[in-house]
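I am writing to request your help with a piece of structural work I have in hand. Thank you for your consideration; the sequence and its tokens are set out here:
=====
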Amino acid sequence: MKKFNVLLVTALFSLLLSFSAFAGEWKQNDTGWWYENENGTYPMNGIKEIDHNWYYFDKIGYMKTGWYQFEDGWFGFGESGACMNPFDYNTLQPIGGPHEGWIEYSGSAEATMRDISNGSVVRYNNRYWSDPGAYQEEVKYEHDVAPAEIKNRFGLADMQF
């Protein structure tokens, strides 16, 4: 009887392990992309983690890109749909930012204090955030023209073999 139980348990485990693991699947039509779960349902009206990335789905289930404000802050979703916000190291969930387009800031203590005082950095959701527009340098050229392209001043005749 004991051998029969061992055989039965072994057969059950073998049967269970032989099934393929089902996973969801991305699908697309003329309206956009959606994700179909393994059970045939799809996420709607919220954020869902898929393959270690977070995506936002609208009320009818289509993936959205761009910036959206939720109750815990702004979240940006790139062209691939994946969330661009930093992640909480404990929960592995994205953290909302204070304003549309703001990015996580990591400057020296001196720079952080200076940037907080001028308003280009704020503390929100236990992180420092930076206005990306505050750090874009405008390149100006003399006479409003770009410098001439540098040309190679050496030719084949200058090479020694």
In short: Residues 15-21 have pLDDT under 50 and may be disordered. The longest strand covers residues 46-50. Strands lie at 25-28, 33-36, 46-50, 53-57, 63-64, 66-70, 73-77, 103-104, 121-124, 127-130.
